[in-house]
Design a protein that fits this description.
This protein is mostly helical and 102 residues long. It contains three helices and two strands, in the order H-E-E-H-H. The chain is elongated, with a radius of gyration of 21 Å. It is 62% helix and 6% strand. The relative contact order is 0.12. It has one domain.
């Protein structure tokens, strides 16, 4: 479990300090109630899934820019077919599938 990732994603704006990587090192400086270790553990699978999905998004965007986007402009100019562009988009999706939902 990555406490820093959980707190950053699920408690934005909260103030805290973590000494080490264990829950015992978490000092809660915020006015809101400090989350329990059990609450953080329950959020971890969701944070992992969100992180994995974001990584796929970044990889897809880079791949679209390299392959599908240029082909789209060729399609608009009449230098490629719509199907060639759609195939390129599908190839990116196939190469970078989203993880299974939690």
């Amino acid at each position: 479990m990555d406490i820093i990732k959980i707190l950053t994603k699920k408690y934005p704006g909260a103030q805290w300090v973590l000494s080490g990587s264990d829950y015992s090192g978490l000092e809660w400086l915020d006015e809101s109630p400090k989350p329990t270790k059990k609450e953080l553990e329950a959020l971890w699978p969701e944070v992992q899934a969100e992180t994995a999905r974001a990584e796929v998004e970044r990889a897809r965007q880079a791949a679209y820019q390299q392959t599908a986007d240029p082909l789209f402009f060729e399609y608009q100019r009449g230098d490629a077919t719509e199907q060639e562009w759609l195939d390129a988009v599908q190839a990116v999706k196939d190469a970078h599938p989203y993880p299974d939902p939690v």
